[in-house]
Amino acid sequence: MSVRKLKPVTPGQRFRVVNGFDTITTDKPEKSLLAPKKRSGGRNNSGKMTMRYIGGGHKKRYRIIDFKRDKNGVPATVKTIEYDPNRTAFIALLAYADGEKRYIIAQNGLQVGQKIVSGDSVAPEVGNAMPLGKMPLGTTISCIELRPGQGAVMARSAGSFAQLMAKDGKYATVKLPSGETRLILLTCMATIGVVSNSDHQLLVSGKAGRTRWLGRRSRVRPVVMNPVDHPMGGGEGKSSGGHPRSRNGIPAKGFKTRSKTKASNKYILERRKK
């Protein structure tokens, strides 16, 4: 993992920090694992804008990722480490012993030619996937399931990881990237290691146009809107805008929106840090 600071030959490159891409091994994706990706531009089926600040952006094709890691006991060889325009993490192309190819989220330290496997009785090494109940305590994990067979839903973005803290009965205690400590069933799968591209947080776009390339349009501050558009709009001159709140009137600073009767509350031992 490395980043590069560009020589400022244009104003847009003056503060630009780009990814070194030193771990990427190819720029040609596997054709059989590509799918078309349709963009709505924030409009619904009648052409009305329902989501603001979305539109434009470079054309992308979706990479079909294996989040379930359910090919148990079949060893696979890492063929390539690739860039994925749909996520912050890098992805790895696996070639299984039976000839099948799949993409997975790449972990830090995953090398081309490395053998990885998923299943109950595999070694707890980087890239291997196994149930939480079979892992040693203190293991650094990522790509965690919340329900058995669902596929990975937590700790999937660049540089994120969780830690296996304890096992008790049929539940494991896991400290998540947000700081939340939560109970997860021991039969849920997770991958050993930290998600790749941990330098993603150091990148600087350098200019507004680069954000437009990603499909994000410029956002208007609520304070400069009219009262009809936002609760914080209106006023003479540069007014402060009143209490910070959303367009729907929900307070922004410290207001709890999570339901007190939510079914999953009993599995959360410690809430995330504010």
Describe the structure.
- The protein is an all-beta fold.
- It has one domain: OB fold (Dihydrolipoamide Acetyltransferase, E2P) (Beta Barrel).
- It is 2% helix and 23% strand.
- The protein contains 1 helix and 15 strands; from the N terminus they run ββββββββββββββαβ.
- It has one helix at 208-213, and strands at residues 3-5, 17-19, 34-36, 61-63, 76-82, 91-96, 101-105, 115-116, 129-131, 140-142, 162-168, 171-175, 181-185, 189-192, 268-270.
- It has a 7-stranded antiparallel β-sheet with strand order 9-14-10-11-12-13-15, with no helix packed on it. A 4-stranded antiparallel β-sheet has the order 7-6-5-8, with no helix packed on it.
- The model has no long low-confidence stretch (mean pLDDT 95).
**How many domains?**
1
- Report the structural category: mainly beta
Largest sheet: 7 strands, antiparallel
Strand arrangement in the largest pleated sheet: 9-14-10-11-12-13-15
The value of Rg in angstroms is: 22 Å
Descriptive terms for the model:
single chain, OB fold (Dihydrolipoamide Acetyltransferase, E2P), 274 residues, mainly beta, globular, four-stranded antiparallel β-sheet
Give the topology.
Elements: E1 3-5, E2 17-19, E3 34-36, E4 61-63, E5 76-82, E6 91-96, E7 101-105, E8 115-116, E9 129-131, E10 140-142, E11 162-168, E12 171-175, E13 181-185, E14 189-192, H1 208-213, E15 268-270
Antiparallel strand pairs: 1-2, 3-4, 5-6, 5-8, 6-7, 9-14, 10-11, 10-14, 11-12, 12-13, 13-15
